[in-house]
């Protein structure tokens, strides 16, 4: 009620000049409030704002009449009207302050000593730790992001390419075709809906959303850690320190440096995820089972839609929460709730679940390679900001804090110690290849360990600072001084590394010099990136590896991208299917030296160029690639580049009869005989390709993974299903010469049903976990 009255009063009482600038500002502020209410699940509050707008729009004629009467007799300026337009609570508060000063007054004392400016700053910082921490965080962020904030477009690191239009996210979400990698029909992640909505809210600019996510998610991660630790300790100062430790952690800074937005989303949500699942085992916390399961499932599904390995983190949190002693019956209840939440998350994010199951768990893994144990202990998975040895301060401070935790904080402290230690060891085992592929994600384990260490720091500081001023000098004071020294040196060192701004992402200058020439000649083709087995991201825009090919000492990691690199439309979709198995077979033959026709083997995949960082390939692999008779090595300019003249476009009409016979033979035994093709590129129009048929013996070739729902039609020819080409792709025999042909995929009803099912599942989940409306 008061919202509609406030807007009506604004329309009635202010002058026309004031309304010209006030109403747009009021609208933007109201829209921001609606969005914040929606994100925080306060749907009733959001409805009240929209209802107030609707009520005033309906009653606008009456408001105009009342405004005319009010303005006709008004004789005071707007600055006077403003005093009476403020909310009642603000007016009453101001009156109470004035009355208190008038009635009580203030005794003057000439002997009062005014504290120094330094003492005032210190006193303010101790009294307002959150404000102080936010101020310092903003200052460090301004220094750290001074180059990223003005870079356009953002490139470098493992940053994926955002589309130019926000509609592309929704188009890919609704499409039955995967447009990245080697194609196929793997469903898109529900995360594309969030990215599309975010792009629309950022004035329809996906590039702006990308920059806001990259720069804002680290701050959101620190804030999430603060809220998580404060919910356990109820202490503001220690929670602020824990948030600083997490926000400046090595794993978070390296994710920013590499531009890994899905990983940053996971890191930002991990503090909430951990405390949510710990709550199910807390004997002192009242838990409403139904609401808890739905809320935990929705949150985990949201994180898994961006980074599926969030499920591994949830399992690790649950396992150690179940191991820590608790009251009788609470362990069984906690396990049951956690299992139900994991099942609900699988259902709410079922497109991701399907991809995980079809890909044999490939979506959960991440090929990082072997990283030293001490590097993992400080949270480092590779070179980047925050990886200096000073980062060891966090596990050291956590170990010190564990010595002082007693009482109510013992249970979460034991969990944090177990989760932190096991996270480091699991990351080491995953990087060394001792874990199954579906469980090999060092980043997920290191992230849990980092948050656990930060939580331990908060718990220890909360215990040390409780009543320490009233106790005799002893081990608590010594421990507090030692922790202050360790934390001070560590946080300053990490903040300095962040403020230097040495990020791998940046402006267009982050792309290798030779890449521009490569991209210009590969618009209708694909690029194959190679590197050592133990590496991480490829040179930009190669991105994160798709997988590995074992060839003893010459084993490599690889990625298949379009000419512009990896796409954000492929978030949470792993590289799996018959096409990738065929690519691994072809690469294995090249790496072992069993063939000298590597260009022909890679031709069906549309691979026009093979690229690698000069220092990132074993010398024998470089020699074998150079020895291929049908591949040309180009001059090095920071990249080792091999051009494949036998490559065929990913969608083309191929007029070479020998090429067509080899394709339709549906086997790889004749691939090495492929000649240099004569081809005409088919014009893409969304999920449809158009072109003209060639001479007799030609084939229409689509270099995507086989899907029987594709068909080709031509003038006077009925639509026909595809033949399996080379064992994994699609091809159609020739049609009458010169006929206009159309290649399209049918069966869109399945994807429509999936989207409708997602909406049906998410709508009640969000409504069941909504927050109550605010008062006043």
The main sheet comes to: 6 strands, mixed
Question: How do the strands line up in the largest sheet?
Answer: 4-5-3-6-8-7
Sheet-strand content, in percent, reads 5-15%
State the distance separating the first and last CA atoms: 10 Å
Query: What's the total helix number?
Result: 29
Low-confidence stretches: none
Q: How many domain regions?
A: 4
Assembly type of the shown chains?
Answer: single chain
Helix content: 40-55%
Structural class: alpha+beta
Based on Cα principal axes, name the global outline: globular
Describe the structure.
With 776 residues, the protein is an alpha+beta fold. It has 4 domains: 2-100, no CATH class; 205-500, no CATH class; 510-644, no CATH class; 651-745. Helices cover 53% and strands 10% of the residues. The model has no long low-confidence stretch (mean pLDDT 87).
Q: Could you list some keywords that capture this structure?
A:
776 residues; alpha+beta; six-stranded mixed sheet; five-stranded antiparallel sheet; 29 helices; 18 strands; 10% strand
Brief overview:
With 776 residues, this protein is an alpha+beta fold. Helix content is 53%, strand content 10%. It has four domains: 2-100, no CATH class; 205-500, no CATH class; 510-644, no CATH class; 651-745.
């Amino acid at each position: 009620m008061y919202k509609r009255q406030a807007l009506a009063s604004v329309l009635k009482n202010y002058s026309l000049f004031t309304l010209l600038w006030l109403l747009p500002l009021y609208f933007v502020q109201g829209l921001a409030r609606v969005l914040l209410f929606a994100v925080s699940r306060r749907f009733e509050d959001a409805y009240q704002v929209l209802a107030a707008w609707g009520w005033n729009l309906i009653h606008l004629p009456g408001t105009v009449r009342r405004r005319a009467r009010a303005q006709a007799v008004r004789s005071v300026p707007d600055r006077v009207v403003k005093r009476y337009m403020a909310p009642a609570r603000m007016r009453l508060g101001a009156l109470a302050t004035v009355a208190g000063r008038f009635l009580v007054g203030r005794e003057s004392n000439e002997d009062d000593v005014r504290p120094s400016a330094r003492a005032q700053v210190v006193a303010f910082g101790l009294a307002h730790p959150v404000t102080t921490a936010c101020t310092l965080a903003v200052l460090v962020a301004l220094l750290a992001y001074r180059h990223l904030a003005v870079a356009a477009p953002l490139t470098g690191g493992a940053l994926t390419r955002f589309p130019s239009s926000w509609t592309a996210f929704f188009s890919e979400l609704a499409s039955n075709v995967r447009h990245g990698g080697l194609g196929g029909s793997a469903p898109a992640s529900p995360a594309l809906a969030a990215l599309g909505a975010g792009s629309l809210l950022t004035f329809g600019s996906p590039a702006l959303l990308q920059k806001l996510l990259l720069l804002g998610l680290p701050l959101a991660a620190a804030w999430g850690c603060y809220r998580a630790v404060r919910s356990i300790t109820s202490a503001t100062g220690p929670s602020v320190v824990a948030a600083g430790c997490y926000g400046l952690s090595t794993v978070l800074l390296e994710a920013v440096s590499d531009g890994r937005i899905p990983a940053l989303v996971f890191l930002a949500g991990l503090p909430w995820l951990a405390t949510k699942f710990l709550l199910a085992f807390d004997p002192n916390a009242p838990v409403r089972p139904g609401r808890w399961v739905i809320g935990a499932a929705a949150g985990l599904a949201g994180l898994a839609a961006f980074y599926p390995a969030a499920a591994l983190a949830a399992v690790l949190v649950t396992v150690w929460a179940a191991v820590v002693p608790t009251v009788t019956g609470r362990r069984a209840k906690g396990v049951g709730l956690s299992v139900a939440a994991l099942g609900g998350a699988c259902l709410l994010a079922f497109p991701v679940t399907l991809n995980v199951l079809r890909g044999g768990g490939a979506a959960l893994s991440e090929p990082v390679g072997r990283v030293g144990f001490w590097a993992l202990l400080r949270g480092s998975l590779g070179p980047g900001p925050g990886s200096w040895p000073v980062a060891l301060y966090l596990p050291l401070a956590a170990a010190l804090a564990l010595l002082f935790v007693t009482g109510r904080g013992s249970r979460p402290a034991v969990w944090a110690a177990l989760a932190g230690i096991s996270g480091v060891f699991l990351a080491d085992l995953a990087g060394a290849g001792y874990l199954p592929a579906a469980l090999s994600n060092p980043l997920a384990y290191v992230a849990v360990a980092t948050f656990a260490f930060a939580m331990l720091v908060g718990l220890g500081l909360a215990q040390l600072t409780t009543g320490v001023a009233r106790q005799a000098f002893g081990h608590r004071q010594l421990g507090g001084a030692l922790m202050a020294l360790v934390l001070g040196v560590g946080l300053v060192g990490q903040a300095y590394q962040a403020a230097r701004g040495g990020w791998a992402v940046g402006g267009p200058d982050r792309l290798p010099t030779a890449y521009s020439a490569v991209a210009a000649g590969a618009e209708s083709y694909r690029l194959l990136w190679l590197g050592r087995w133990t590496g991480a991201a490829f040179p930009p825009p190669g991105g994160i590896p798709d997988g590995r090919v074992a060839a003893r000492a010459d084993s490599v990691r690889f990625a298949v991208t379009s000419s512009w690199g990896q796409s954000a439309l492929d978030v949470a979709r792993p590289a799996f299917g018959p096409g990738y198995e065929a690519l691994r077979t072809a690469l294995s033959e090249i790496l072992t030296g069993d063939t000298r026709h590597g260009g022909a083997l890679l031709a069906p995949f549309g691979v026009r160029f093979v690229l690698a960082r000069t220092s990132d390939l074993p010398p024998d692999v470089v020699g074998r690639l150079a020895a291929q008779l049908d591949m040309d090595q180009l001059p090095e300019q920071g990249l080792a580049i091999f051009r494949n003249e036998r490559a065929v476009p990913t969608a083309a009409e191929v007029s070479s009869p020998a090429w067509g016979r080899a394709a339709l033979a549906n086997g790889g035994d004749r691939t090495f005989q492929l000649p240099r093709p004569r081809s005409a590129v088919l014009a893409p129009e969304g999920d449809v390709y158009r072109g003209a048929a060639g001479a007799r013996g030609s084939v229409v070739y689509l270099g995507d993974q086989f899907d029987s729902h594709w068909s080709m039609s031509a003038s006077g020819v009925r639509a026909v299903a595809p033949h399996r080409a080379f064992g994994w792709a699609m091809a159609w025999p020739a049609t009458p010469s010169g006929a206009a042909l159309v290649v399209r995929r049918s069966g869109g009803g399945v994807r429509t049903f999936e989207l409708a099912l997602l909406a049906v599942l998410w709508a009640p989940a969000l409504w069941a976990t909504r927050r109550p409306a605010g008062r006043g």
